Amino acid sequence: MVQSLFEELGGKYERQGDYLIPCLTVPAEEEQAIGIWGQRHLDYLKQYRKVTYTNLLTSGRLNAYLADINRQAQERFERLIEGMKQAQGITEQLKAENALEWTGCLNNIRACAREIVEKEIIFA
């Protein structure tokens, strides 16, 4: 009997009823923590970049890729916040004098930084 390409490459089949089903497995990958940025990018890949998601998943690199995206996004987010705080003069002195104004300014900065990170890294 002629072997299929799958069998020539070392693949095996298992019989289920009258059918031969190939025994497929996904390569094991190292488990890494994926934060909120990685989760958002994962959702984006699943919804809009299905081929990329499938390629990363089947090659066993998805978790490492998402952990790297999460790290990059978090670093960019923190740098943006610090830069915007300095540019707008948001200091600890303002926090001590007027906590409500400081909170409003910081929330505005965080929202702006979140949008930038999502546009540059998460949804790119």
UniProtKB/TrEMBL annotation:
Which protein is depicted? Answer: TnpV protein
Q: Which InterPro entries match?
A: TnpV (IPR026989)
Domain of life, source organism: Bacteria
Stored Pfam families: TnpV (PF14198)
